[in-house]
């Protein structure tokens, strides 16, 4: 077990959502703890066991019942429920207060960094304002960066009454200044090639790669292992661990997968979202370790969540994505531009169209994503994210000229890099040996 260094800054991590939003923070916390940092994770009660297995201190921001109720409300956001009503119905303003107070209790002046999920962890910015502690926002998908201005507009206007109530209760002024509205560090947990495939992140955002590999040691249930070891590799179907799904998702995905003639391995935590009884040839599990499952399935039909997407990429598994809502269409489009997945918009979700895309994906076979290259000597993935966060203790992380050049190059397209390389070769030729 790692022993915390007396000089290592304490890291307080706050995140919200389901597996794709929370498990990267668990892994980030484990990485920080391996570096000698005391780490506390503040998130939903549902993830207590994950945090404890990673050796993290844990603060539940809700109860299991409250978490399930909030999940049950999220589909209504796609059907027109307003954000103010969603926040009030689910006690999210009170949750901000709880998070703030938990951070304040654990704050060590000069020895604490605050880390929040990008756009949702407003409590982290308020705590940074009140405590003078440095704050980082960590985005798990590009849409969180893209939507940041809209989110801040919503906090300042659509949710203004509730946010003002929170700030009054915390003893903060009603107005926000630039310092209180901005984190000192912004990280994106995806690689440069994925970023360049769509709207690019601003240069201030440091990209560290997908937060893989995940290494939680979960055993495969015997019936799932038997199916995966059978004579015909199954098709995996999953809509992730949340409920914010198009109502037709599982009907189209399951029937389309069944038309492949292969067994269907269905993974969904909420049994009520899928047909009852299950169609022939479909095996259901509420949860499976995708690290073990993904390399052993023939293909996957899924919703476009970034955790599922990146795990499938790592395994080279062919993907058919039925994306709808939040970050998923953007994630799917980025993969589609690299020809790493087949994507189908919701108006075309029929078993026949899903089956046709799945057949083509199976014919193409394993996919090979661009390498997640990093400059020599620079840490990769979560190690890089942890390094950036740890450096916040003594003020903004200093960036060397070489680091700045590498970061800017990472945001250039292949054509722009070629132009830069040609110019440099020309300059070197003119200078002579």
Brief summary:
The chain has 433 residues and is α/β, with parallel strands linked by helices. It has 19 helices and 13 strands.
Given the structure, what is the number of helices? 19
Fourth CATH level, the homologous superfamily of the largest domain: Glycogen Phosphorylase B
Question: So what's the overall shape?
Answer: globular
Kindly name the structural category: alpha/beta
The CATH architecture classification of the largest domain is 3-Layer(aba) Sandwich
What can you tell me about this protein's structure?
The chain folds into three domains: 10-207, Glycogen Phosphorylase B (Rossmann fold, 3-Layer(aba) Sandwich); 222-364, Glycogen Phosphorylase B (Rossmann fold, 3-Layer(aba) Sandwich), CATH 3.40.50.2000; 399-433. It has helices at 19-34, 48-53, 64-78, 83-89, 92-106, 122-131, 142-146, 148-158, 160-169, 192-196, 222-228, 249-258, 290-293, 306-315, 328-337, 351-364, 381-390, 401-410, 414-431, and strands at 10-14, 39-43, 57-60, 112-117, 135-139, 185-188, 205-207, 235-238, 264-267, 282-285, 299-302, 319-321, 342-343. The protein is an alpha/beta fold.
